[in-house]
Amino acid sequence: MAYKPPHVRAHRVYQPGKRHMELMPSVSRSSGLDKDGHALKNRAVQEEYRAFIEEKVNEFWKHHPYDANESEADRRNRQEEQENILILFRKLREGLLATDRKDMFALEVYETSLHLAILFHSEKQTTSILSHLFPKLYLTSPGATDTIHTALSTALLSLLHHLVLGYPSQNRYHEHLHSLPRTLLPRDHPAHRWLGQLTRCLRVSNYARLQELTDHSAFEQFFLISISQQADRGAERPSNLALEAMCTLVKGILAKARATAWLIMRNAYREIHCASPPAGTQEVGRAELSPTSQWLARSLALRPLACGGIEVDDIVKVVDEWLSHKCADGEVRRKEGAQGRWIVCKVPVRM
Q1: Residues 248 and 273 in one domain
Q2: Can you say whether the dihedral through the CA atoms of 174, 177, 182, 187 is positive or negative?
Q3: Which of 9, 70, 165, 319 sees the fewest Cβ atoms within 10 Å?
Q4: Backbone dihedral region of 340: left (phi > 0), alpha (psi from -120 to 50 degrees) or beta?
């Protein structure tokens, strides 16, 4: 192999005389022996590193637009990039913790880390971040009176996180609720009443009511942001990370409650009839919905969170997709010669 001078052989990331964000070691793992091992304890470096992470986040959303369809290969690439972004945020948080930084910059880092950890379905990181956010960071940050609204949204995210993790038990949720200062979540606030209704609904297995309580309009008022904040975000990424994180947690609760409701249905029924009413009973030019499809959509909370009013055709489609998915899992199968009829398998049978 031909000889290459040092400046040619140098690492493509490493450039002498420049700070290398890609190679920045974490405070907890450097032991001070690595070059720049304590760099993230410097406030200026922390802010520089935050800007570097923001570039990575923007690049991620460009490559993987929110809620876009993706192939299996794209999904694996997305998950790998998500893990890398969370690692970068963890390094920065370690630097903040090592310097006991509790200003608005630190608060923004922790909040953004929390939102992304929830969106990226990292339960361990979410739990770790929450342990540092509550209660001292909100109460000790300069300008804490200006963070009441973000504290409320973060409190809701933390409570929903514990509700999802502990389901069907609500012990972790109630322990965390009682540990929150009343200034962060006043007991007379509409958000507190909404949480009370939601948890009661889950306790008494009122799954039909769950559809209404988990509608987008039921909680979006607690996550309002200014128009200028929305304008700061690109078209590919969510305009309101906190609200999208909340939707992710609500979907998690719905998935768990839906699984419980479906188990009850499988034990109670041998057959499901979702066929539309006879043609002679339908109004001209109007699609009809079978009572069973309507009941399934309501009881299993199959309606999308932000759909508002949903058309009959959409309900039929979402119910059919749900049953087709369960058919693939071997929990139901189509009845031969009978359109819209499904036989419930008490024991899953893989086809």
Answers
A1: no
A2: negative
A3: 9
A4: left
